[in-house]
Amino acid sequence: MKKILNDPYSYVDELLEGLVAAHPEYYRRLGANGRVIARAGTPKPGKVGIVTGGGSGHLPVFTGYVGPGLLDACAVGDVFASPSVDQMADSIRAANAGAGVLRLYGNYGGDIMNFDMAGDVVEMEDIRTTTVIVADDVASAPTAEAHKRRGVAGMVYAFKIAGAAAEAGLDLDAVTEVAQAAADACRSVGVALTPCVVPQAGKPTFSIGENEMEIGMGIHGEPGVRIGPLVGADAIADEMLDILLADRPVEKGERLSVMVNSLGATPPEELYILYRRVKARIDAAGGTIVMPLIGRYATSMEMTGVSFTLCRLDPRLEGYLTAPAACAFWRV
Amino acid sequence: MKKILNDPYSYVDELLEGLVAAHPEYYRRLGANGRVIARAGTPKPGKVGIVTGGGSGHLPVFTGYVGPGLLDACAVGDVFASPSVDQMADSIRAANAGAGVLRLYGNYGGDIMNFDMAGDVVEMEDIRTTTVIVADDVASAPTAEAHKRRGVAGMVYAFKIAGAAAEAGLDLDAVTEVAQAAADACRSVGVALTPCVVPQAGKPTFSIGENEMEIGMGIHGEPGVRIGPLVGADAIADEMLDILLADRPVEKGERLSVMVNSLGATPPEELYILYRRVKARIDAAGGTIVMPLIGRYATSMEMTGVSFTLCRLDPRLEGYLTAPAACAFWRV
């Protein structure tokens, strides 16, 4: 694994500088040390704000999804590290347009602790906040302990659906309820083939044998559920779908979106080979796929691997999912 | 390098199957063996058709760029291999709406030979064709022999600009002239850090030392101009820009688009670190960047590396570049 960078300690600041220079129509940089990305322009008065935050190294997650119909602001941590309380408080202030702010992020201890404290800070400034935590990675805890699961690519659905609800003018409690419904509708699982390198560490986050894969591995290299020989695309798709469908089966007539997501280095050619099998399986189960998302939506830099996310839709969620939205990485 | 696939010999057919299953609103599959991708729906009567073609393994190039405001059809070869004459003739037929068809593709011997023969075939069916060959890779031949250069990511600009001209209703000669102007406006150079694996070969296309990079390497692993130690992002950006600007300087007040393109595995974080330097250099030269393209626009599967393309704009080219267009990989 080879990386193109300057000083590893300026990796995040330099990438944010480039991001904002490239896309000033979407992003502006705020905060004492420039670690908050907010939507370009001023917040729409009376619109509920939505913020997220988390470690860097997952583009488009997190900060890429700031934009109309999506998020209002994002607190940006170092690679794979939580943003600070100050950065999160600044992101909440940036997103506040007088109607309160939803904190919508993944289920990681550091993020929860800091976002909770940031909420306490802004409460003293009369900014009301609510919280929805995305916990969609079925490989990270059993069904009975679903609240302990890590948040992975299901976040993208939650951002999109909650963002559309806020854009439609719903109030804070209603946006929060929609975001929770979106989070609850998602189930994900990943497979990793190679690790990635955190710039400041300078070496791979973990190792996988030359002809092996790890099913269920987390996006930071958290241990998966099974290490085994690297098998063919259809067999990989089947094992991942079996895990997802054991947790929650697809019902006949159900409408759902499917994400086949590259963790970074895996090219779109391979995603389409996998999607072919996923679609055949969902069709056979009697489900109908709406707006499949095939690409790089939630990554770990140059990690090789993929994740699948199934997002069950009812008419309300489907309407918000397919509503217009735009950021530098995704247009709906 | 690990790949997710089934039979290497069904790699291209399976990925096309998945592509069309995922995005029927953009693509349909045609031809005796399904190796032509055409726009969904029927051709707009009287619109000039634009076809391209080439080897697989470069998504979104080639076939991804079929869509409104872009291409009408694409002949799809095996990985890194030219499509057949029959496939190219079928792609021309699919793109024909009675106003003739522009063949717009990269400067590779096999593609030229087969597209020339395909033109002869369809001429007997009274389909008029013209040709524009993109040859933008400055590292592949000196300025005095620019016609010998390989076609790389500059193709994306040519597809976009010619596609908008055809959509605007220009006739075949005028679309051809615009496409040639777009091709002439582009200069590219790449740097490779790691190779990729052609599925049917099963081993890397070339090798680069653990701490080395190759400046000027082609997208199929064609030799570059210099192998050297892997240096920092700013130094890489400077060397690539020096090569591009030596071939054609940026003039004060000039407007241009810049593409910072991942060859596959290189993540967007690194592209933005590079773009930061590119923008500073172009700003210093007095140029104005319009619509920078930062992402994966022309790839070689899981190859690590980047390419830069500069596309000089006049008001006409800028208008076509920024006109609406849509495919599964890109929306303008």
TrEMBL record, chains A, B:
The keyword Transmembrane does not apply. GO terms for cellular component: cytosol. The keyword Kinase applies. It comes from the Bacteria. InterPro entries: DhaK_dom, Dihydroxyacetone_Kinase. GO terms for biological process: glycerol catabolic process. Pfam families: Dak1. It comes from Siculibacillus lacustris. This is Dihydroxyacetone kinase subunit DhaK. Residues 7-330 form the DhaK domain.
